[in-house]
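Milestone 3.1: sequence recovery, worked example.
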């Protein structure tokens, strides 16, 4: 570990000597090097302020001078760190949402209409509310029977025009 830190320090000294106005970025998996030791040896600022693997911040980005406005950690499918000057990167994590959908086809409509044509609606109740409740429960049963509800997944990376109906 000490030899790696010495090597990094020597490289930074040489780069600053040969290219004094250059910006230096040191990035990668720092699971074996303490962040404080890298900062102490290079004088760089560390940009990543949140965990990158589990509860640990292992993927780090060190810069010789301020040059990036945005630092984001993308968590899926594998962790990555994005640094840039574009605020639009703020929502880069993919989100999934389960939506329900009822497929409606001409065959389903024909079957439904054929079935309800054979039904005689008899409402023995004189109470209007009870008659409506009976009609509503029968209509809901038929709707659920002929037009099955299915679940599908819509993600935040799908274009806006991809609705559950279109995706199904």
């Amino acid at each position: 570990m000490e030899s790696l830190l010495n090597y990094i320090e020597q490289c930074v000294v040489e780069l600053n000597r040969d290219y004094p106005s250059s910006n230096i970025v040191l990035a990668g998996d720092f699971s074996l090097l303490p962040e404080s030791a890298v900062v102490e040896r290079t004088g760089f600022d560390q940009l990543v302020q949140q965990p990158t693997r589990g509860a640990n911040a292992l993927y780090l980005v060190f810069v010789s001078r301020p040059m990036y406005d945005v630092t984001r950690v993308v968590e899926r499918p594998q962790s990555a760190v994005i640094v840039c000057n574009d605020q639009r990167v703020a929502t880069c994590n993919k989100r999934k949402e389960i939506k329900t959908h009822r497929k409606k086809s001409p065959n389903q409509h024909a079957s439904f209409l054929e079935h309800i044509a054979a039904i005689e609606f008899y409402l023995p109740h004189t109470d209007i509310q009870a008659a409506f409740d009976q009609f509503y429960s029968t209509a809901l049963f038929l709707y659920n029977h002929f037009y099955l509800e299915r679940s599908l997944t819509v993600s935040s990376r799908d274009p806006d025009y991809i609705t559950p109906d279109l995706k199904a």
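Residues 128-146 form the longest helix (19 residues). Residues 47 and 105 are 54 Å apart (CA to CA).
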